[in-house]
Structures are given as structure tokens and as C-alpha cells.
Amino acid sequence: MAARAKQTLRHCNELYVSEILHAITCDEGTTRRVYDDADLKAVYTAEGQRIADAAIDYPGAWIVIEVTTTQLRREAATAVPDESQIQDIDKLVEELNQIEATITALRGDEAPSPAHLLQATVASCRCSCCRRASPSTPSP
Questions:
Q1: N or C, where is the chain less crowded by C-beta within 10 Å?
Q2: How far is CA 91 from CA 15, 47, 65, 70, in A?
Q3: What DSSP assignment string belongs to the chain?
Q4: 56: number of CA atoms within 13 Å, CB side?
Q5: Residue 9 above 60 pLDDT?
């Protein structure tokens, strides 16, 4: 039960950050700049592909975001070498690997343009904004 509650909390935090990112960038219909993990997973479908929680498209650059609720353990924060520090570092390295995999996918030769990401998002989304944007969505 505790593990399920933690997973729910993590998911809620990811959704909250996503809402904030969309609000900050004024994402609407075909002017999207924020792509959530579901949007990215719809495009980057390679077996074993790891994806960060969000990516923001800026002209000439991407900002890749990984949301985490993991805290340093007290033992690790005291700088006394033990297993807690190793576990915390391993968790951070895991998060960094996820970010790196997303950056690699975005930089790859097959990296789609924001229009491709938008089209994949519109195809899978049922909200009224996306349905209105669908006819004017650029083709790949």
C-alpha cells in the first residue's frame, strides 16, 4: 500500500510540473512547445527507449526535464561514506541516464520536428483544443 501511495505521489508531481510548464509557455493548439513523456514515447518507440518526463522546444534548442521526488537520506547528507550515499548516487545516475537517452533521441537523425510531435499528440489526445487543431496540423 505504501509503495502504491508513493507511486501516486510521484505521478501527481509529474502532472503538476507538466501543468506548470504548459502554463509558462502558453501552450495552445498548434503552438505547443512542451512535450510530455507520453508525447515523446509516441514518437520514440524503439525497444528499450528511455524518455524523460518532458521536453520544451525552443528555437534551436531543447530543454529536457526529469521530475523526481527522491530526497537525500539523512545518512547520505551527513557525508559519512556508507551504502546510503551509494544508493542515492545510483538513483541520480539513473535519472541522468534517462535525460541523456532523451537528448540522444532528440538529436538523432530520425528526431522529428515539433510538427511531428504535435501530430502524434493530436492523434492520441481527445481534448477539444487538439480536435480543433487537428485539421490544421502540419503533415510529417
A1: N
A2: 21, 22, 16, 8
A3: -HHHHHHHHHHHHHHHHHHHHHHHHT--GGG--EEEHHHHHHH---TT----SEEEEETTEEEEE--------HHHHTT--SHHHHHHHHHHHHHHHHHHHHHHHHHSTTPPPHHHHHHHHHHH--SHHHHHHGGGPPP-
A4: 15
A5: yes
Q: Please name which of 65, 77, 70, 64 lies closest in space to residue 91, comparing C-alpha atoms.
A: 70
**Overall pTM surpassing 0.70 (yes/no):** no
Cell 480543433 found at: 132
pLDDT tens digits for 49-85? Answer: 899 999 998 877 889 999 888 777 776 667 666 777 7
